[in-house]
Amino acid sequence: MKKTIFPIITILAIVLLIFLPYFIGAYLLHVLMTIFIYMTLALSWDMMLRTGQLSFGVAGFFGVGAYASIITCSRFGFNPLVSILFAGFFVALIALGLGFAVLKLRDIYFSITTLAITMVFSVIIRNIPKLTGGASGKVIPNVIFNGDSAKTYWLILSLALITILISEMFNRTKIHFAINSIRNDEIIARSSGINIFGYLLFVFIISSALQGIAGAIYTQQYGFVSPETTFSLDFLLLPMAMALVGGIYSTWGSVIGALVLGFASEYLKLIMPYGHLIIYGIMIVLIILFLPKGIYGTTKDKIITHKIEKKSLSE
Amino acid sequence: MVILKTINLVKRFGGLAAVNGVDLDINENEILGIIGPNGAGKTTLVNLISGLIYPTQGEIVFDGINIESKPAYIRTKLGIARTFQLVRPIQGFTAFENIVVGALFGAKENLKQARDSASEICDILELKRRDFPIDKLTVLDLKKVEIGRALASKPKILFLDEVMAGLNSDETWQMIHLVKSLKKRGLTIVVIEHVMGVIKELTDRVIVLESGKIISQGLYENVCKDPKVISAYLGEED
Amino acid sequence: MEKTNKSLKKTLIAFIIFLIVVGIWKPLALVYGIQRGGLYSLIGLPLALILGIVGILNLAHGDFLTLGLYIGYIFFNSWSIDPLISMAPLFFILFGLGMVIYSILIRRVLKAGHLNQLLLTFGISMIIIELIKIIWTTRPRSVYTSYASSSVTLGNMSIGMYEFIYPAMAIAVLVILQLFLKKTRLGQAASAVGQNPKGAEIVGINTNVVYLVVFSIAFGIIGVAASVMLPRTPVFPLSGNPYTLKSFALVAMAGLGNLNGILIGGITLGVAEAIVQSIPGYEGWSDVVFFGILIAVILLNAYRRPES
In terms of residue numbers, what domain contains A192? Predict the structure, then answer.
């Protein structure tokens, strides 16, 4: 019974989400769009984390995607949608190149290098003003779909759904067995026949491309880029906090985390204009200390332990 | 017929030679025992053959091809499997899923085939608590998972590194029985072991390593009488 | 031992030749570079100390520096206490803060793996930045002292005098740290823990006490660095933030546990940065020097490291 109910709920939820612009106001729609962008970032960050590699490069790929889209749009006259796809390919290409260098690194060295790469991206972009507008940034005359918020919402919703789909594929196929083994024990992974570098590169490229596309859509929505705002570390910290709160290594963890923190911070923004992001920092610290598996992970563990206890009793 | 062969295999760590010119022939479908005092280079030898480390010098020939510079995961796909001295199951997976990993990547099967072969292997190993998470298993079960994952990669040759350690005598007998049954299935098996009784019971042939060199080889009974072997073991005790 | 001495000598000679060449080519860049590099070293030392001995990469490093700057600013603004005098209370305030942070947060993740450690300190970094925004808003503040803007003119170059305090303080702190690590019992214990924590525990060293002391001392040094830089640094929520990565760049260059290397690396990077900034039209690229070298060093080490 459970097996037939789950797909039905999923389909109903998707239909509901698609028709949402007809029911809810502009403000709520806007909040949802932001949440879906962050959800995409959180999930793609988590995909890399599932291989055991903590990437601090999210803001970097997000920013490069944003600039790639805006520049192709304004200078080479790309259609906005084409420019978004181009941004994805461009970031994937960069990830491929960088991957050969950085994916040999582990632990803090991988994390720090990805953070440093983010900084290098932003310095480079600041220093080629002819192409990027330099420190003051760049504005395009028209935002995507001429500001039609329903269409923009559908575009962002599709990105989030595609990301969820990819994440679930990662969790339900051979890939899941590969990356989970790599995270837990690289030596065992190697001697079980897993091509570690190959899988790391694959996941790195996919997750970076998603981050690039998210950056491209986000900027097309606002029509504006600048090194300060586009490479803001918020695009790294918020998704990280969301994935942690919901529960890492799972699709639904990031989804739940993005919804919970997204709405919570929206509310906090109203009562606390300065420093409302503190909630993200506090959440990260509390979760690391007291609930390392997050909301979804902890609940799931409880259910599994319960099942095993029942099974042991009946044996 | 020789299935795996090493030619003048050397591995130095800094100035220290852990394996120092080993010429080894492993015949098809035999159970070969490797013994030697602590630090003799047994595990280093297995690491070299399975590809976790690369030799300083020398060749490794498996099934007629040189594999000494091939990465570990390729060697597993070619048919070399191993277990580890300290059992290293993959956390977060059940016993069954651990075995699936071997079938998926070592034997290049798809998910459905891999599940089928894994449950077949669970039957062979008589592994009962297959859906339990790793941390809820007994030592014997963990050892079986370790062997199961290696077997699932459909190897031609299987290295068992101290697979009896930590088992009581009853469990040891079960394990000996199991290894013999694997031989009957056509596998070539190399056993590294400390317990002499196990070596005696299990192996067709024994090689003795000391300070990275083969000092004696042959039948267990003959090797035991070899004065070089006796002095190597006596030397260890004081 | 002899081998490390030899390589140290080689590094030192290369370093001195580098400084002489730059001194002839661009004397102004050399002076600026030494001044700024001294500051980088002073700030980098506590990060190196914690990473080398406690084994934790503190990603909130630069933000504690910011906090130190604000506390120094309060001393100056509310009680007119000169930053160089408030250095003493600042050392103790941050020392105490270090004890608290270690005891209630860091201690819990010592065995939790790098991932959790990095995330925890990242979270702390965010809390400090946002807390500062809440308390003091984002308005920049600064401290004026008459001595900080004094300068001398040599030929056609005008050189700020105050900034020479940076390399001087860096050397002083380094010497005191080395004396502490070599001559005191606690310091020797700390070195032992840094090299082999498990072994140190076996021979009866209380690692928890060592970690607590080292962490607190490192924080005290952050306080010293904050008060030294305060007269010449605008204070805003992100003033200290970039120093986290820069400090890590120094550690990556020097290698874990090599405190002298922090000074050499800091001045080298400071000079390199000053050279890039002295080329007209390329001032903005100076940050790439740091991150570029950081990435290059990490990659080089990774490829040179033999398989384990």
Answer: 29-232
Q: Helices A251-271 and A26-49 sit at what angle, rounded to 10 degrees?
A: 140
DSSP string, chain C: -HHHHHHHHHHHHHHHHHHHHHHHH-HHHHHHHHHHHHHHHHHHHHHHHIIIII----TTHHHHHHHHHHHHHHHHHHH---TTTTHHHHHHHHHHHHHHHHHHTGGGGTTS-HHHHHHHHHHHHHHHHHHHHHHH-S--B----SGGG-EEEETTEEEESGGGHHHHHHHHHHHHHHHHHHHSHHHHHHHHHHH-HHHHHHTT--HHHHHHHHHHHHHHHHHHHHHHHGGGS-B-TTSSTHHHHHHHHHHHHH-TT-HHHHHHHHHHHHHHHHHHHHSTT-GGGHHHHHHHHHHHHHHHHHHHSPP-
**Contact of A117 with A102, CB cutoff 8 Å:** yes
Spell out the per-residue pLDDT of chain C, length 308, in tens: 445 566 777 778 888 888 888 778 887 888 888 999 999 999 999 999 999 888 888 999 999 999 999 999 999 989 988 888 889 999 999 999 999 999 999 998 888 778 788 889 989 998 999 999 989 988 899 888 888 777 787 777 778 888 888 999 999 999 999 999 888 888 888 888 888 888 888 887 888 888 999 999 999 999 999 999 999 889 999 999 889 988 988 888 887 778 888 998 899 889 888 888 888 878 788 888 888 888 888 888 777 654 44
Residue C107: closest C-alpha in chain A: A289
d(CA B118, CA B123): 9
In a domain, A67, yes or no: yes
CA distance C267 to C257: 18
Residue A117 vs residues A60, A91, A114: alpha-carbon distances, Å: 7, 13, 5
Residues 6+ apart with CB under 8 A from A280: A237, A238, A241, A261, A265, C123, C126
Q: Are C38 and C248 in contact (CB under 8 A)?
A: no
CA distance A165 to chain B (A): 19
* Interchain proximity B82–A191, CB inside 8 Å: yes
Residues B124 and B147: beta-carbon distance below 8 Å: no
Q: How many separate domains does chain A show?
A: 1
Residue type, C217: I
Which chains border A (3 or more CB–CB pairs < 8 Å)?
B, C
Nearest chain A CA: its distance from C135 CA (Å): 9
> Hey, are the CB atoms on C294 and A113 less than 8 Å from each other?
yes
Taking the CA of residue C47 and the nearest CA in chain A, the distance in Å comes to 14
Q: Name the A residues in 147-186 with CB < 8 Å from any B CB.
A: 173-174, 177-178, 180-181, 184-185
Nearest to B117 by CA among B152, B76, B158: B152
Report the alpha-carbon distance of residue C149 to residue C232 in Å, rounded: 8
Report yes or no: A277 at the C interface, CB cutoff 8 Å. Answer: yes
Compute the nearest-CA separation of C200 from chain A (Å).
24
Residue at A180 is within a domain? yes
Mutant choice from C127, C288, C290 vs A, greatest count of A C-beta within 10 A: C127
Complex prediction ipTM: 0.89
Q: Which chain A residues in 91-120 lie under 8 Å from chain C, judged by CB atoms?
A: 101-102, 104-105, 107-109, 111-113, 115-117, 119-120
Q: Which residues of A touch B77 (CB under 8 A)?
A: 193
Residue B94 per-residue DSSP state: B
Q: Which of A245, A286, A285, A291 is nearest to A265 (CA)?
A: A245
Of C114, C122, C291, the CB nearest to A119: C291
Q: Are A192 and B106 within 8 A, CB to CB?
A: yes
| Both tokens assigned to B26 | 């492993």
- In chain C, domain spans: 51-144+163-236, 241-301
